[in-house]
Design a protein that fits this description.
mainly alpha, 71% helix
Length: 377
């Protein structure tokens, strides 16, 4: 038993599962503890021999500038550390993860399987309904965001399996894809569904311009997935999804299709300043309930333009790192695209896609030298 579980990276599992559990009411504390314990364990394991060093990595330098600007802006505006504490935590989490030497495919597979199990258990806790279903999570968008992240992670593993000797069979792929896709659909999360479609489209656009031969080879897998999905696409369930979940929802919100997001974003943009408005920046749009519903505008409103500039550059670096190695491995590209697209509609800090992005980003710097050797199955 001990030998069996030694194949997995328990730290990564704790962080990934914890990032989903914090989106629940009853297991929020347990999820937070799992993340903290996982990060502490990683720190003690890797601090003596980090995989990435600050002096040699632009992204780390940029992110530390982001933390410095956030802290400086907080004191200038009189908010002190209270306005920059989240930014500092974000930087520390990134640093702890990217100095960690991780790449175990079997761990990523187990993350997918455990989430599928969580979704199924959720049915017994919160009886399933069609549509706008949230399972055990706060709201349907939480369920949809996790499902979208898992689908893109699973798709990346399958697309990479043929050229990187990854043990992802078609049976494994399909037996996980359809349950997760089912929960994505019944969540009725438009942002999450759009994220999956847009990320897949963007992937094929990038590889098309890099190599038509490589594009054609990968496109065959997409056609295969589509053909195998035809029974679902022509089912009554999918028809009800289109008619009830999407079309009806859009018609009901025709006068306010963005759910006040556009108004909130406009207020934040109109009130941009160099050093932000602190953690209570949502007082700017107090007439509208809720948050900014946008990771980047939330950062802009809270920490100001100066810190936001470095934060934005940081994510640009990660995204184009994924594009650069997209033919070697699509994992970083897909999961970063997932985070960035969902960030346009929700705040994505401490979510599954953020943590997996950090792990894949760190690993990308050693792919060229020992990629095949590092795949510990």
């Amino acid at each position: 038993m001990k030998k069996y579980f030694s194949k997995y990276d328990i730290n990564v599992l704790c962080i990934a599962i914890g990032s989903s559990l914090i989106l629940t009411d009853n297991l929020r504390s347990a999820g937070f503890i799992m993340i903290v314990l996982g990060l502490i364990s990683i720190l003690f394991k890797s601090i003596k021999k980090p995989i990435l060093k600050i002096k040699k990595n632009t992204s780390l330098k940029i992110l530390f500038l982001f933390a410095i600007c956030s802290t400086f802006g907080g004191f200038v505006r009189g908010y002190g550390l209270t306005s920059s504490i989240l930014a500092i935590i974000f930087v520390l989490v990134f640093y702890v993860i990217v100095i960690y030497d991780f790449y175990k495919i079997i761990t990523l597979k187990l993350i997918i399987d455990i989430h599928v199990l969580i979704f199924i258990i959720g049915i017994f806790i919160n009886p399933i309904r069609l549509f706008s279903y949230n399972s055990i999570f706060y709201n349907p968008n939480s369920l949809g965001g996790i499902a979208a992240s898992l689908i893109l992670l699973l798709l990346a593993l399958y697309l990479d399996s043929k050229n990187n000797n990854i043990d992802i069979t078609l049976r494994f792929f399909l037996t996980r894809l359809f349950p997760i896709l089912f929960f994505l659909i019944i969540s009725s999360s438009r942002a999450s569904i759009l994220t999956v479609i847009f990320s897949v489209f963007l992937y094929f656009v990038f590889i098309f311009f890099q190599s038509f031969k490589f594009f054609f080879r990968k496109f065959k897998y997409l056609v295969l997935i589509f053909v195998l999905s035809l029974p679902l696409l022509f089912s009554n369930f999918f028809y009800e999804f289109l008619n009830i979940s999407l079309l009806t929802k859009v018609n009901n919100k025709s006068d306010n299709i963005s759910s006040n997001r556009m108004e909130i974003w406009g207020i934040i943009i109109d009130n941009i300043n160099f050093f932000g408005h602190g953690r209570n920046f949502n007082i700017l749009f107090s007439d509208f309930a809720g948050s900014a519903h946008n990771t980047f505008l939330s950062m802009l409103g809270q920490n100001g333009f100066l810190a936001f500039f470095f934060y934005f550059i940081f994510w640009i670096i990660i995204f184009f790192r994924g594009v650069k190695i997209i033919r070697q491995s699509s994992l970083l590209f897909f999961i970063t695209s997932c985070f960035l697209t969902l960030s346009m509609f929700e705040s994505m800090h401490n979510k599954l896609s953020m943590y997996i992005t950090f792990f894949m980003f760190a690993n990308s710097y050693r792919m060229n030298k020992k990629f095949n050797k590092s795949l510990r199955k």
